[in-house]
Amino acid sequence: MTTDDAATAHGHAGHGYLPEKDKFIRRLKLIEGQARGLQRMVDEEAYCIDILTQVSAMTKALESVGLGLLHEHMNHCVVEAARESDAAAEAKVDEAMKAITRLVKS
């Protein structure tokens, strides 16, 4: 399935995060670097509390990306669905609530 096919399947022509795509990519690359740093810390047998501190920082960074994507989804996909119909809006809100639930569950 292409990106356009996926967008159509979800009821919109484009993703809300696209104007901020470069920002999200930069943040994800930083997180990727954090993950490599964590691997190196474990490989070098760093102090466990120092590793846990870095795990916490990486978790917060991922949560920030998730919240940013959620914000873009609400402002783009949900708003567009609300313009279509009440049923479309309800479906997008339900979809967003499921995503929020996944984000906050530990």
From TrEMBL:
Presence of keyword Ion transport: no
InterPro entries annotated for this entry? Metal_Tscrpt_repr, Metal_Tscrpt_repr_sf
Q: Which residues form a coiled coil?
A: none
A biological process (GO) of this protein is:
negative regulation of DNA-templated transcription
Q: Which Pfam families match?
A: Trns_repr_metal
| Superkingdom to which the source organism belongs | Bacteria
User: Which keywords has UniProt assigned to this entry?
Assistant: Copper
Q: What is an example of a GO molecular function annotated in this UniProt entry?
A: DNA binding
**PANTHER family tied to this protein:** COPPER-SENSING TRANSCRIPTIONAL REPRESSOR RICR, TRANSCRIPTIONAL REPRESSOR FRMR-RELATED
Give the family this protein belongs to, as stated in its UniProt record. Answer: Belongs to the CsoR family.
Name of the molecule in the record: Copper-sensing transcriptional repressor csoR
Q: Which organism is it from?
A: Gordonia neofelifaecis NRRL B-59395
